[in-house]
Each structure stands twice: as C-alpha cells, then as structure tokens.
Amino acid sequence: MILIRTQAADAAAEAKQLSQLGLASITVQDPESLGALRVALADLRGRDDVDPARIGVIAEGPGAALAAKLLAREPVITAAVLGNAPAEAGAPLSTLQGARVLLQRGIDTGKATEAVAQRLVTKAPVGTLLYQHPSLRDTAATRERDDWLRDELS
C-alpha cells in the first residue's frame, strides 16, 4: 500500500492501522512529483512482506491527483482510494484499465464539490464507487475504506 499524506502524525497512525489489517504500507509525505511515487512503488514491490500483484494506493486532495497519474502509468497497482480528489484526477482516471477505484468525498472540507465528484465517477473505470461522508476522518469513512481495500487486495 502506498500511503500519500501531508501530515506525518496522520501517516504513522494510518500505517499502523493498515498493518493491523495485514496491509503493508510505505508512506510518501507531500510528494511533489510522480517520480517520488514511482520510487516508493519500486521500494514497496521489493519488500519481502509485499505481494507485488496486490498493491494499492490511498491519497487525498492534491495527492489523489498524483495517485491517479500513477495508476494510469503503473498497471501493477490494482486498487486505489482517492479522497477529495480534485478535477484534474479525471483525465488519468479515464485511461485506467483493470484498476478498481473507490472515491471518497468529505462534505466538511468543501474542497471536493459534488459536481466534481460526479464528473470523476463518469471518467473513472466501470465499477468505481463514490462514497460521501460528513468527514473523511470519521470512523465510518475509515472503516469503509479499510474494508474495501482489504476485499480488493485479498
């Protein structure tokens, strides 16, 4: 699992939670380029505790746009959870084949409007899900994300 985060404390807690679910992860904090994510992907694929056929990504906001680009270029990534993804994630999502995507929208931030979320769903691969929550930080959103990832990567 590639975990893209802006807050180091959030990333550490999420990585621990993912590990309790049996999902190994590597954290990339504030990636500035696709290259940084590709390095993380190569590192993750080289680990003994990772099945290279079962790799996913979790990202929010601007990181979700970069994650969508990574998905479009790296078919080894089979599942992605993109939270509050911006409109620019649509173009790479429209090219995906084989990857499963869960879009999550937190209503509290106001960053990802319903219209943007709906456009992303129409660009994303068939079977993409869109779940909306009061906040992506609430227990229900996190549980839903984790359950979906576990199912997709098992």
Could you characterize the architecture of this molecule?
- This protein is an alpha/beta fold.
- Helix content is 43%, strand content 21%.
- The chain has a 6-stranded parallel beta sheet with strand order 2-1-3-4-5-6, with helices on both faces.
- Helix 5 (114-123) links the parallel strand 5 (100-106) and strand 6 (129-133).
- The protein is globular and about 40 Å long.
- The two termini are 12 Å apart.
- The model has no long low-confidence stretch (mean pLDDT 91).
Provide keyphrases for this structure:
154 residues, alpha/beta, 6-stranded parallel β-sheet, 21% strand
Short description, anyone?
This protein is an alpha/beta fold. It is built from 6 helices and 6 strands; from the N terminus they run βαβαβαβαβαβα. Strands 2-1-3-4-5-6 form a 6-stranded parallel sheet, sandwiched between helices.
